[in-house]
Amino acid sequence: MKLLGRSGIETSVATTLSSPSVNHATAGTSAVQRDHQFLTALRQHWPEYVMEGAELGLFMISACVVVVLLEHPTSAITQALPHPFLRRVLIGIAMGLTAIGLIYSPLGKRSGAHFNPSVTLTFLRLGKVRPWDALFYVVAQFTGGLLGVLLAGVILSDLVAHPSVNYAVTTPGAGGPWIAFIAEVTIAFIQMSMVLRVSNTTYLARFTGLFAGVMVAMYISLEAPYSGMSMNPARTFASAFPAQVWTALWVYFTAPLVGMFLAAELYLRRHGLHQVFCAKLHHYNKQRCIFRCRFEEMGLGTRS
């Protein structure tokens, strides 16, 4: 009988561990685990996914209605306000109020009110959102936004398809796509910097939605001539698809994410990951939270 020495045993074990059958079994186990996580996330968190889609859908319906009222040539408001800046200010106020309403609505309180893939992916980068939840959120946001614009098209018919409205598309201004890119990066950076700072500050956290809405109103009023003011890939796609306007789509798919990621990195360097408590924009409620949440550690007391 042949005995194996220590080196022989180590070699045998190493050979066994590196054998194709073992590797195949390990890969199979990993695939099963991924499938389990996928199904678990979908089964347990589908209401939040639906809510995220509904939020952007409602936002896009509001955008289409507001732009028809303020930009369509037959609108009495358009005729009464010939200056485009005044109309942009009113559009900004309307969409800012829409954002605030959604953030503080039962839907927003439950899902966290991202309704923006760039926001969701930034919180994924910060470790507050699990990968499968992030994937389903992004899918829901794109789907919900598109359905919202299509529904607005059914309701408003030719009004929303008119060239002056064109499904509220976002396209670069006279400066071209690179100016639009810089503008989108800038507003996305400012927005995420504000969200992280305000939502993680004890005495300001409950006002995050108000800050966000005010910023949206300001961006539409002041930044829209440069990029159309998107800051949201799903929002741009929702309008681009029915309008079939794909001008500089890369700007709106990259710039918001770049801006928000830069804001997150700067926040991490200055304050640390321990100062990011949750991914919800409004946490003063009794709705469940599906994120990696440490909200209670802020010492905010009883939620209402």
Largest β sheet strand count, sense and barrel closure = none
CATH top level assignment = Mainly Alpha
What is the level-2 CATH architecture name?
Answer: Up-down Bundle
Number of helices: 13
Number of separate structural domains: 1
CATH fold naming: Glycerol uptake facilitator protein
- Helices and strands, in N-to-C order? HHHHHHHHHHHHH
Structural class: mainly alpha
Helix-residue proportion? 55-70%
| Integer-rounded radius of gyration | 24 Å
The N- and C-terminal alpha carbons lie at a distance of: 76 Å
Content of β-strand? under 5%
The gross shape turns out to be globular
Q: Runs with pLDDT <50, length 5+?
A: 1-10, 300-304
For CATH, the homologous superfamily is named as: Glycerol uptake facilitator protein
Average pLDDT number: 90
DSSP E strands, number: 0
Q: Can you tell me about this structure?
A:
By secondary structure, the chain is mainly alpha-helical. It has 13 helices and no strands. The protein has one domain (about 45-300): Glycerol uptake facilitator protein, CATH 1.20.1080.10. The relative contact order is 0.14.
